[in-house]
């Protein structure tokens, strides 16, 4: 299936979007996609280096910038609050005073739960365990505490793990394992995880921007079908023209190795093991209902194939 990022922005002409976090993975994809159809439509705003008194004239403000989750949990907790909450609060206050119509805030499913039983829906009572998730939730709480003036919309988007060509992270780690011919040792862990293709994310943003009928609110974002890590390994093998090797080593042995990784540079630590083996299913029914669609343009499998081929 061909990529949908160009198609998804064909109706964004004559729109100006203020964007924070333009240098990140999502930001770069968003800038490239929109600018191809409407050059000069993106106004990049660096909140840390460019103090502002007033937001520039625009149709929408997309707030991507933030302090990302530290897999080693070594970052100062206050740093998360200063960036993910403090800067968001300042930006939103300016939005409320401006003529900008839409505020799109990128939160995270980690603002709600670090582990999930069943399927994560928007009505779950948030209980984040990490400074990252807590800072995202505090920002959400502040945004939702404000009265939204008539004619404006607030969207709080909670994506799960986002992937696409050029993105790194745990998928890249799995890719290196398969590419090197090393057997994947976690086959004994039976799990199911939600992912989010960058193309589906761009589609969602485009729909929000060009359809005033879409109601603001809190929305989880995920592809239509969750996948097990073993399925992901097989897809990586297919994209890499290699037969994936999967071993079923005792989970107790693997957990011990992960604890060693917590204190050394061993590539597997407890946080990565959790991400690779736990089930984390995210419901996307609310956002699909809001957009009035039955399914997203890119399937979970095709999206991962595109991502892995990008590694090649």
How is the secondary structure organized here?
Elements: E1 17-20, H1 25-37, E2 42-45, E3 60-63, H2 77-97, E4 102-106, E5 119-120, H3 131-145, E6 153-159, E7 161-163, H4 170-179, E8 195-197, H5 198-210, E9 217-221, H6 229-239, H7 251-263, H8 270-277, E10 281-282, H9 285-291, H10 300-311
Helix pairs in contact: 2-3, 6-10, 7-8
Walkthrough of the structure:
The protein is of the alpha/beta class. The chain has one domain (7-311): Rossmann fold (3-Layer(aba) Sandwich). It has helices spanning 25-37, 77-97, 131-145, 170-179, 198-210, 229-239, 251-263, 270-277, 285-291, 300-311; strands at residues 17-20, 42-45, 60-63, 102-106, 119-120, 153-159, 161-163, 195-197, 217-221, 281-282. A 6-stranded parallel β-sheet has the order 2-1-3-4-6-9, with helices on both faces. Strands 5-10 form a two-stranded parallel ribbon. Helix 2 runs parallel beside helix 3 (131-145). The longest helix is centred in the first third of the chain and has 21 residues, at 77-97. It is globular and about 60 Å long.
């Amino acid at each position: 299936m061909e990529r949908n990022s160009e198609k998804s922005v064909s109706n964004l002409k004559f729109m100006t979007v203020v964007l924070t976090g333009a240098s990140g993975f999502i930001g770069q994809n968003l800038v490239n996609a929109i600018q191809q159809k409407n050059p000069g439509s993106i106004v990049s705003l660096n909140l840390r280096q460019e103090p502002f008194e007033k937001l520039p004239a625009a149709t929408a403000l997309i707030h991507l910038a933030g302090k990302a989750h530290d897999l080693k949990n070594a970052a100062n907790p206050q740093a998360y609050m200063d960036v993910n909450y403090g800067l968001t609060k300042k930006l939103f206050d300016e939005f409320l005073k401006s003529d900008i119509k839409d505020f799109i805030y990128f939160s995270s499913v980690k603002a709600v739960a670090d582990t999930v039983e069943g399927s994560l829906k928007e009505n779950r009572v948030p209980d984040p365990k990490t400074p990252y998730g807590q800072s995202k939730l505090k920002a959400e709480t502040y945004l939702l505490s404000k009265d939204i003036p008539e004619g404006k919309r607030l969207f709080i988007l909670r994506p799960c793990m986002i992937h696409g060509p050029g993105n790194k992270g745990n998928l890249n780690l799995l890719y290196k394992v398969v590419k090197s011919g090393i057997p994947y040792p976690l086959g004994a862990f039976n799990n199911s995880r939600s992912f989010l293709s960058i193309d589906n994310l761009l589609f969602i943003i485009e729909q929000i921007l060009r359809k005033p009928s879409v109601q603001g609110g809190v929305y989880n974002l995920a592809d239509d079908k969750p996948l097990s890590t073993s399925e992901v390994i097989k897809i990586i093998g297919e994209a890499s023209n290699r037969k994936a090797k999967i071993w079923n080593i005792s989970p107790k042995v693997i957990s011990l190795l992960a604890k060693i990784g917590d204190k050394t540079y061993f590539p597997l630590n407890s946080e990565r093991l959790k991400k690779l083996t736990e089930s984390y299913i995210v419901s996307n029914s609310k956002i699909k209902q809001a957009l009035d669609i039955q399914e997203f343009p890119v399937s979970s499998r095709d999206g991962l194939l595109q991502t892995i081929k990008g590694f090649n």
